[in-house]
Amino acid sequence: MAVYKSRGIVLRSIRYGEADRILDLYTRDTGLVSAIAKGIRRTKSRFGGRLEPLSCVEFLAYEGRTLDIVTQVEVLRSFHDVREDLKCLKAASGMVWAVRALSGGDEADRRVFNLLYHALDALEARETSFEAVGSAFALKLSILAGYNPRLDVCVSCERDLAQISSEGLLYFAPPLGGVLCAWCRSESRDAGPIGDSFALSPAVVALLQDLVASPIRDVALEEGQEESVRRVVSAHVLAHAPGNTALSRSHLTDAGRRTLRPA
Ligand SMILES: [Zn+2]
Q1: Which of 131, 139, 174, 203 could form a disulfide with 239 if both were Cys (CB 3.0 to 4.6 A apart)?
Q2: What pTM value is reported for the model?
Q3: Ligand 1 mean position to 161 CA, how many Å?
């Protein structure tokens, strides 16, 4: 049994049986890990209440057949305040969703771990504009995953958006991963993958560019801007989620139940 030590952020923490918890962690060294912490919910557990979702922990575990088994945990940052504010928690939940959506398998990407850590840090440090952090996180994450959204030129004719935005509305085409000009959209209207494109204003494109370019701790959106930005960001993430199906299936819970049910 290979024992290992790693650092991870708890994405999900599910009750299992009388006293155990099944955890999803995004770890610095091995990407997504599913593990079980036994006896965690007993009052005298050596873990205490230390495995809250979003906490950043250092842990010792050994590899199990389906789930790794956590034997020791130390909390490095609990990100307690992120869980205390409903809007803040909602933004963090969106970030967790994006990580699960864009992480294909067990590939390790230390940049994803770092981005998630800094985004949680940015959420905890502020009192407003949580949505901006969530959207900036998802955009930056999509770039790390290799799905850089085209926000400077039309994805089809490659004309500079700054020069054509005066012609009228622009469109976001999730399957093409970027913005389409009105002319290209009308030219290829019935041609498959642009079918679910939707209109967006040049102002929203500028906001998206700003979220990509700014350090995550500095991003901001006004309340009226959040909805249209969120629509683009979630459509972009969803269009590039491997298989898309991982999102609707709770694969960890299912796997856990199957293999851990007492014989
Ligand atoms: Zn075009």
Answers
A1: 174
A2: 0.86
A3: 9
d(CA 23, CA 59): 12
**Domains of the chain with bracketed CATH:** 3-80 (2.40.50.140), 161-239 (no CATH)
Contact 20, 37 (CB under 8 A): yes
Position 59 pLDDT exceeds 50: yes
Where residue 240 falls among pLDDT bands split at 50, 70, 90?
confident
| Ligand 1 centroid, distance to 102 Cα (angstroms) | 27
DSSP string, 40-78: TTSTT-TTTT---TT-EEEEEEE--SSSEEEEEEEEEE-
Q: How far is the CA of 153 from the centre of ligand 1 (A)?
A: 8
185 CA distance to ligand 1 middle (Å)? 7
Q: b/e map of 159-178 (b: 16 or more CB within 10 Å)?
A: eebeebbeeeebbbbbebbb
